Amino acid sequence: xxxxxxxxxxxxxxxxxxxxxxxxxxxxxxxxxxxxxxxxxxxxxxxxxxxxxxxxxxxxxxxxxxxxxxxxxxxxxxxxxxxxxxxxxxxxxxxxxxxxxxxxxxxxxxxxxxxxxxxxxxxxxxxxxxxxxxxxxxxxxxxxxxxxxxxxxxxxxxxxxxxxxxxxxxxxxxxxxxxxxxxxxxxxxxxxxxxxxxxxxxxxxxxxxxxxxxxxxxxxxxxxxxxxxxxxxxxxxxxxxxxxxxxxxxxxxxxxxxxxxxxxxxxxxxxxxxxxxxxxxxxxxxxxxxxxxxxxxxxxxxxxxxxxxxxxxxxxxxxxxxxxxxxxxxxxxxxxxxxxxxxxxxxxxxxxxxxxxxxxxxxxxxxxxxxxxxxxxxxxxxxxxxxxxxxxxxxxxxxxxxx
Length: 403
Description:
hpI Integrase, Chain A, DNA polymerase, domain 1, mainly alpha
């Protein structure tokens, strides 16, 4: 029997009893609704009974969210269970959780969900630009890209609150998305690559090998971390890019196929790099033998054994941020011009362009969906190479005229 009580002129109070709790007392869930339309008594009764049944089913299924006194932090817990776990990729969810933990929840967690206003969000985003906004003791504010990502996280969460009828509108939607100021990170030229390779000689073998492969193959960080020994064709001198590695929440290792079919590819290695890779394989084999029972290895989410090319000495995989953090310190220590680890991929492509390699070949090595992507990313370098080609023709024609 529906437990419906009239409260005001157009409001009605629903009660659903959920049985006795551990303390022996009856528990209940309640909800108040407002009927805005004018309905005949019969239509009103049908509408109320339908809404009550829907509410009852939500309560019994454990899916009802009470809006009363719900804080942003409480709602985030509901968002995790009912949306994020189902609709966000592990990598995206990991990034969302880092931003929530480090900045967003400390700022908004205590506020009631319906009390958050656009001005709160504007003030918060501006605070991230100010000195101290980094929250790590370093001077200056956060990058524009990070600030925009925080806006994205907040907007996503509050959009679910609108969908689930907890709030009428999304306050983050009224706040203009922060503009990202892209920093132009120029890849290394040939002279800088020589300096980099020279400095690498003093580094552990696995870092030397990883950077060498990044430069000569253009592999992404996740592709390097997901590379296994079985993916190397020693006879043909090829690397098969078949998977990428990411670290999800709670330290879970996820080995996944690349995002697109074009990312799955085979890349030819220079003979000297293949020989260095053979030496590295022997080094890792001896390292494993010396560890004996201390070797842990790794299994993926499906229980499959993994033998990664790049891992800790005991076979456990690197955290996906480890190469980036090491490379940043390595650059600083050796006085090299700062570039990101990902810029090794850009350096690889630019070196090939400068050597006159066709853009189609470069596109295939990088795993781009089509050559247009390559042209858009490396258009400047391709134009420079084209101008250099024209200059060579001009030199040739000038010599002919002099004769």
